[in-house]
Every structure is written in C-alpha cells, then in structure tokens.
Amino acid sequence: MPVERASKRKSNGELSWKSKIIRQFVNGWIESDNVDGTEAPAKVEVKPSYNYPNFVKSSEEKPAASVTDPGLDKRTVRRIEDVIAYFYGEDRISLKLSFEQAGLLLETHYDEAGQVFRYTVNEHEICRAVGPQQEAHTKARDELVRILGYYCYSVRRLKEFHTRRNVFRKMTEGGKQKFKDHKIEEGNIGFRMLQKQGWSGGSLGSSEEGILEPIGVQKKNNKVGLGAESSEPQKIPLEAFMLAIKQYAAGNALYDLVFSPQFTVHQVQKLRDLASSLKLFPQMIGKKKQLVISKKLTLREIKEGVLKGHSDLCAKYAVIPPVYQSFK
Question: What's the domain range around 194?
C-alpha cells in the first residue's frame, strides 16, 4: 500500500519562532480604525464651519488692519477659488504646491525695463509690484499670500508628524544596552586582535547587524529540553515591520508611522523603498533623521478630513476659512 506523505505545512503550534514573532507583532501593532477612516463629526448649529476643533476663524487669525479686500474682479476670483493655500510653518507657504493641486499654473515674470514683477495664473495676471527685482518679488509674493488668505481656504500644518505608535526594534538580552553596561575588558586577547583590524566597538559587519558579544557557552540549570522556546526577548525581524507597513497602506489609518533611530541605514532604506512602492510618503525628520511614513493626502482631502473632525488630521493640521466669509 502506498504510504501517505506527511504534510510539509506546519500547524499553528509548530510555527517557527520567527513566524510567531511576526504574527504577534503585527496583530498587536496596528490599531483598529473605523471603516470609513473618519470619526463622527460633532453636532453643529447654523454655522457648522466654526464648531470643528481645528477650524479657525480667519478674523481671529488676522489683525483688523490687514483685513482688506484685494479688489480682484469676479473672473479672477472664480479662477483661484479652488486653491487651498498650504502653510507648513508659522509664515512659510508653498505656493507651488497650493496652485499645482488646484490644477493651475503659477508663473513669475519680471520686466527689467519697467522694473515690474508679476505673478500670473494660467497666463492671467493676478498681482504685481514695482521696484528692484528682489524687492518687487517680495512685495508681489506678500500680496499673493494676502489674496489667497482673503479668497481661499488655508491648511496650516501644526507639527511635522502625528502618531499613535512609535516603532522600536526590540533588542535581545545581549543587545546594545548590555554591551554598554558590560563591555569586554581591553586586556582581552580577542579585543586587542579586533582593535588591530580596525574595530572600534559596536556590532560587526558593514550594516552593523552582527553580534555585539562573543558567543559563549551557557550553563544549563533547568530540566527544559533542548530546543524549547526561551522567554527572553528577541529582536523582531525586519519582515514584521515590512508586513505592518503593508497593513498600514491597505488600511484607513491616517496617523504617521514613526520609526526609532535603532534601525540601521540599510534597514531604513529597505523600509523606505517598500513604503514608496506602496504609494506611501516616507521622509527623514528631525536631528536624528528618524524615518516617518505617512499616507499621501491631497490638500483637499486634508481640509475635508479636518472639517469632518478626524482626530488624526486635527492633531496635525488646522483649516482656516477665507477672510471674506467673516463679512457674510
């Protein structure tokens, strides 16, 4: 009789330690979100625009002296009404991004003979200033920002990132902290030999992924059989983080993923490449150049999310209505 071959697939109880760590990490890492990715908006009265947490009254943002009508004709106003001005600092604005996402072409022109600097939108002049090029450029830019503030919505970034989870790479018991606390003595023969070969401490290897301490023989003082799983913490394999990024890309979460500086340059590059392939937005932020992965959102999506009261977006952005709405 033919002997039935044993199935090569492992049961749930026979998963390797690596698979178990990946499964345990991923299952407990991504928080659950609403199906539509938004929270229920607050109940509002006649003017719903001012009842959302990050919807700021423009009259409270601007001094009364600066609230003046730029006097654009109706055709020009209609041309720019879909623009959302994006401020990424106190007074720093990205004019290029603001007009590009509205599908408009913003261009600059300077007439040296007449010393006139002009901004045009789709080849139609929107504002101008007279003087030396640099001075006229500054005046025209300030006027354009004033025009956008009067007629258009603005999105102001409050902070570089907002997260619910900081991602750390757990270390084994023989990790970097233990190495710092219990360094090999300088009189050790192996220590001196490695120093002569250029070693200055830390992990071995070009990517610094090697072991930190020599392999030692541990005394066995219990009755647990060989191969039994240890309760000691183990380093989470990179595959777990890659799987979590894939789940983040497929889900509705809008908070950012912030990775600790524990990851090596080689590991960070792998995570960045994966994020880019999933149409996410990876960037290096801060003095320590931490990897932050975000969802790619348009200014319109950010604006609508804040108006709907999405907590993750409200923690990172504020929406400011056009000044002219204050006089309605």
Answer: 177-205
Predicted confidence at residue 52, as pLDDT, reads 38
Residue with tokens 């009261």: 309
Helix, strand, coil percentages (3-state) for the chain, rounded to 5, are 35, 15, 50
Q: Are 153 and 322 in contact (CB under 8 A)?
A: yes
CB-hemisphere CA count at 13 Å for 54?
24
In a domain, 194, yes or no: yes
Please write the tens of the pLDDT for every residue from 26-69. Answer: 665 544 333 333 333 333 333 333 333 444 444 344 444 456 88
Report yes or no on 92 lying in a domain.
yes
Q: How far apart are CA 51 and CA 56, in angstroms?
A: 9
The single residue listed with the structure tokens 């261009």 is 107
Residue 123 pLDDT grade (very low, low, confident, very high; cuts 50, 70, 90) = very high
What separation in angstroms does the CA of 235 have from each of 91, 206, 228, 273? 44, 19, 18, 22
Residue 262 corresponds to which tokens in the numbers above?
């524990």
Q: What is the DSSP-derived secondary structure letter of residue 285?
A: E
Question: Is a pLDDT exceeding 70 seen at residue 218?
Answer: no
